[in-house]
Amino acid sequence: MRTWQQAWSEALYGEGGFYRRVEGPAGHFATSTHGRAGELLADALLRLVDREGLRQVVDVGCGRGELLTALAASSRHTHPDLGLLGVDVVDRPAHLVPRIDWLVSPGGPDLPDLGTPTDTLVLAHEWLDVVPCGIARADGTGVLRTVCVDEDGGEHLGEPLADADSAWVARWWPGPHPPGAVVEVGRPRDEAFDRLVARTGSGLVVAVDYGHRAGTRPLHGTLMGYRTGSACPPLPDGSCDLTAHVAMDSLRSDAVRTQREMLRGLGVDGARPPVEQAHGDPAGYLAALSGASHAAALTGSGPGDFLWATRRVP
């Protein structure tokens, strides 16, 4: 029986793993990078690019390039020279426009050589939540032990946490941990984020994810599976996505803000168009109303509570 971290990694990124499936992640769930919401997010990111004086966007864990496609369309006239690079575990999808470059990643916390890009927005949108991490549960005496799992999801407690993981817990998820409490040991996510920063020559590195901060750590953990649009038991057999929220403050970023705060600061507020517009420009009014609805969804309860961790690379 393997540790959850080992089983999780194989289930998502091994041969035949979930993220290598033909239908891609979008065949099972939608994120803020998909559809009309993705177009609004792309527009906001272009404003961030302008504000920071950047020349390229690198999208890490980009699925099949949905957000990059939206960025290419939105920037066609306003930012024709903006570089666009996708990084994911599959080969470059054939449907992408020629302007979008691509690098194949090993998956999980491992990254290809990004070429030390400069003046670049490096975006990791819902990447860290699928970087497998150790799962620990407190035994009857409150000692945190590594959780092991079989392919059917059956679990048992293994050895006490290793020293490095214990040190991470003491710093970022301190006890006491009552019997049965679960800790998702975020050290692999911290290290992955540090590697991403180290491979960036200059610019802004942004991790966007489900997350929590000190004082709001979940008592029973957040590990969950998703399949064909619905939550399901987390089975490490390659049939479903496996995700757990990120301890965003442990990334040691320059700032952590909610998506609501970030997007409103970039002009996405969900304000409805004036109803008078419907009389003189009904088509424009309906388009603006649709955009406002999606903007409200991006900044409302749920997606609006996503956390953005940002770190500048001078």
UniProtKB/TrEMBL annotation:
Annotated GO biological process: methylation
Pfam families hit by this protein: Methyltransf_28
Methyltransferase recorded as keyword: yes
Keyword Metal-binding (UniProt): no
GO MF entry, a single one: protein-arginine omega-N symmetric methyltransferase activity
UniProt keywords, alphabetically: Methyltransferase, Transferase
Listed PANTHER family: PROTEIN ARGININE METHYLTRANSFERASE NDUFAF7, MITOCHONDRIAL (PTHR12049)
Protein name: SAM-dependent MidA family methyltransferase
The organism of origin for this protein: Janibacter cremeus
